[in-house]
Amino acid sequence: MPTNPAVAAPAPAKPAPAVPAKPAKPAAPKIVRDPKWAKPWQTHDDYVGMKSTKEAPKKVDTSPGIIHKFVSIFFGSPKGERDPKWAEPWQTHEGTRKATEPEAHKPPVTPAAKPAPVPVVPVVKPAPAPAAKPAPTPAPAPAPAPAPAPARAPAPAPKPAVVPKPAPVEKTFPSEPAGTSPAPPVATPRANIPADVPKATREQVLAKVEEEPTAPQKPPPQEEKEQIVVVPTAVRSRVNLEATLGLDEPSLDASIRTDPISDASLRELKKIYETSIKPLELLYKYEDISNRHISDPELFAPPMVLVLGPYSTGKSTFINYLLGNENTKRALKTGMPPSLGVFRVVQYGESDRELDGTDLSAHWSFQSLSKFGQNFIDQLKGKQLNNPLLKKATFVEAPGILEMRRPGERIYPFNDVIQWFIDRADIILVMFDYTKLDAGYELEAILDQLKGRESQVRILLNKADQIPPEELIKIQGSLFWNLSPLLGVSVPPTVYAGSFSSRPYKANSPAKLFQAQEEALLGDIAKAINNRVDNRIAIARRHAVRCRNHAQMVDTYLNTYYKNKGFLTSKHKLSEDIIENPHSYNIYEGMSMLTNISRYDLPDPEVYRDFFRVHNLYDFQTLKETCTYIKGCPLHKIDAAITQELPELLARYHRLMDQAMAAPGMKPLYNQDLPSPGAGVGQAAAHTETS
C-alpha cells in the first residue's frame, strides 16, 4: 500500500541547545562537636558553678506585735514561777496523751477470785537432849627413858676445789665500751584471747591511733655538776691578813665608832660640791670637755680595788685568798686556760648569788656603765657575797690580756671601759707571772692609761716561790726596767714578789722575804680602804681645780674675742680664727700670767677646738657677767672651796677620827653635825697633800 511521503517521512528533529554544565557544589564541612556538650547538663561545669536561684527562706519575726506590747505596758504580765507542768508542749503532755488513748484497747476489768485458804500444819518441837557427861581424864603415862646419844660419824674428807673457768669476754670496738649496749628485748607471751571477743576492723584501729596523739616524752633531768673542791692538806695562817685588813674583832669594833664620822664627812663634801663647785661647772659646760664627773657613786661608793694583768697570772686566786673563799664553792672560778674575757665585780650582799650585766648596770654605783653599749653589758658579770671585807671594798677583775689579739677586734670599747674603772679605783694592782714578763700591744695601751696615777699602782710578781732564789733578783730587776718606760716615770714602780694564795711556800724559797712583801702589799690595800674620805676629798679638789681652769680659759677666749671684734667684723669668722690660731692671740701666755694656774694643767688647743665646735664661743658669758648681787660670783665660791672649805673639812675629819679612836667607850656620832674647826686649822690643812 502506498504511503504518503509527507506523512511517512517525518521531518528531522532540531538539535537541542547546549545547556552549560552547573559547577559542582563544594562538600559541606565536617562539623566537630564541642567537647563541653559531651556531658549531660546536670553534671556540666557551667551548671554546677551557677548560683542557686532559690530564694533564701524568709525569717519569721517571732517578736510580739504592737498591740501585745501596748497591753503588756499598761496591764503588765503576771510575775512568778511558771508551773513546771506547762513547760512541756501540749501535744506530748501527759494529760493530753491519757485523754486521747482509746478505751477499746484496755482489757476488761474483772474482779479476781479470792485464793483458797492455806491449811495450817502444827509444828511439833523435839524434846531437849540430856547433857553429855565429861569423860574422865586418863592417868599420865610414865616418861620414857632417854635414848643413848648416837656415835659421832667421822667428817668426810674435803673435796678438791674446782676452779671455775673464766667466762669468755667478747671483744668490743673502742668507740663502744663494753656494758653500754642495750639489752635485747624480751618476748612476752601472748595472752589467750577469748573467741567471743569482737575484733575491730583495720580502719577503726587506724582511726583510734590517729585520734590519740602520743605525748612527747620529757628528757631525763640532767644532774647538776657539782664543783669539785680540792682542799690542800696545809694552808697558811690568816691571822696577819685579817689584822692588817681590819677584819679582826678590835678593828670591827673600832669601825662601828668611825663609820658614822666618815658618812657625815661625805655628806658635808657633797654639800660643798653642790653649792660651790657645780654652778661654775654647769655655766661653762665642763662635762663636755672631760670624762671625769662627780656624782653620788663617786662620793659614797665603797673603795674599789682594780686587778689587771695578763691571763692565768693568779688574779682570781688572789681575790679568793683575800676573801678567804679558797677551796670552797663560793670561790671565783680559776684555771690555767684564759678566762671568758669578762669583767668580774665582787661586791657585798646579804645573800650569795650570781649577777649578770643587767643587774649590775641597774645598781646605783654602776649605772654609768650603760653608756658603753649592750655588747659590754653582756661581758660584765658579778658575784654578791656576804663577806666582811666586801663591806669595806669592792673588787673588780679585768679580763686577762691576750697579746696576739688584733687591734680593734673586741666588740666593745675595751680601753674606754678600763679608763672608767681606773678613774674610780682607789688602788690598782697589776699582776704578772714569772713566765709572762713581756708587754705587748694591749698591755702597753693599758699602762699608758695609768700615767699620772703612779702612786695608786702596785706591781705584783706572782708564783715567785717557783723561781730559784738566785734567779729571783734577775727576774724582779728585768720587770722593773721593762715597765718603767711604759709608765712614764724615772723612778721604778713598786714591785711585790710572792705567792699570793693560801698554799704554803715551796721548800728552799725565801719565805721571810715573801711574807714581808705580802704584809707591805696588804698594808697598802688597807691604807687605800681606810683613806676613803681622804681620797674623796682629794678627788673633789682636783675636780674643782679643773673646773676653775676651764672657766678661766673660756673667759680668756671671750676677752680676746671682744677685744678684736669691730663694728663690721663677722663674729663667726673672728671666733673661728681665734679657735684655730690661739697662739697668734697669746691666749695660753695670758693664762700663764694668772695666779694659781700652771700652763701644764691646761688642756691642749685641739681639745678646745673640738669644744667650741659644739658650743659657740660668743654664746658664753664672761666671768664678770656671771656675778650677781644676791648669789655672788661663782669663781669666788670655787676659789673658797679649793683653798678653805675642803682643807677645813679634811682637818676636821682627822680630828674627829683621832678622838673616836682614843676613846673606845665613846658613842658613835650618828646624828651629830661635824663641829666647826678651831682657829688655824684651815691654814694647817692647806698644806695637806690632797691633790
TrEMBL record:
Membrane topology qualifier: Peripheral membrane protein
Top-level lineage group: Eukaryota
Pfam families per record: Dynamin_N (PF00350), EHD_N (PF16880)
Dynamin-type G domain location: 299-534
Subcellular location field: Endomembrane system
UniProt feature, compositional bias: Basic and acidic residues: 94-106
Keyword annotations: Membrane
SUPFAM superfamilies: P-loop containing nucleoside triphosphate hydrolases (SSF52540)
Region (Disordered): 1-38, 76-194
Gene Ontology cellular component annotations, sorted alphabetically: endomembrane system
Coiled-coil zones: none
PROSITE patterns: G_DYNAMIN_2 (PS51718)
Subcellular location, principal: membrane
One GO MF term: GTP binding
Bias (Pro residues): 108-167
Name listed for the protein in its UniProt record: Dynamin-type G domain-containing protein
Organism listed in the record: Meganyctiphanes norvegica (Northern krill)
